[in-house]
Amino acid sequence: MQNLWQILTRWAAACPLDIVFNPGATEAAIAAAEATLGVAFPADLREYLLLADGERWNSDGFIGDWQLLELKFIVQETQRMRALVDDGSFDDNTNAETPAIKGLWWNPQWLPIVTSGSGHFFCVDLDPGPEGTVGQIILFLHDDGGRFLVAPSLRAWFARLAADFERGLYKIVTDEENYPHFNSHALMWSSLEGQSLYGAPIRSS
After folding, report:
1. 86 vs 88: CA distance, rounded Å
2. Nearest Cα to 127, choosing from 35, 36, 38?
3. Which stretches of the chain drop beneath a pLDDT of 70?
4. What is the enclosing helix (H) or strand (E) of 157?
5. Whole-structure pTM value
6. Can you list the domains of the chain with their CATH numbers?
7. Which of 155, 169, 191, 195 fits as disulfide partner to 44, beta carbons 3.0 to 4.6 Å?
């Protein structure tokens, strides 16, 4: 994980965006978060958090303009979504089950680790479907019943992102006001390789 993280942070440092990662969390903080949530983090999630405790609150957003959550916000968002499940907020929502992901609008065993800031999350899935893997990365869209399998693990996702950064897939583009930002669609499509997001074709190679 450390080598992958070095590739990712080197790319972040070289790009013109103001991407700032927090120092790593402590073992004690990670253990406390696990105890609070009643879960055991996958090894690769623990390794990552020891290297970087997400992004600073005003960082430009590393994952296609989305932010890596601090450990305390992973806990906070997990608790918030669990509370919505408990109070019946999602009872009328339907979500198609896939072989790898259980058909729940929100599974209390999903841990949000990346936020769009508008209710969408990349999550670590601790309770996969029969063909899934504990610790797989999924994409939750709050206004879409689809749940997308991103990668079999956080390590595998970071490896794909690192490889795509190295090959120059992700670009910094400017908007009409000359403000630089990620070509976030490219990153999102890479994350969902082999899937489909809002009908958009996903690259296959």
Report:
1. 5
2. 38
3. 173, 175-205
4. helix 154-166
5. 0.87
6. 2-89+97-191 (3.40.1580.10)
7. 155
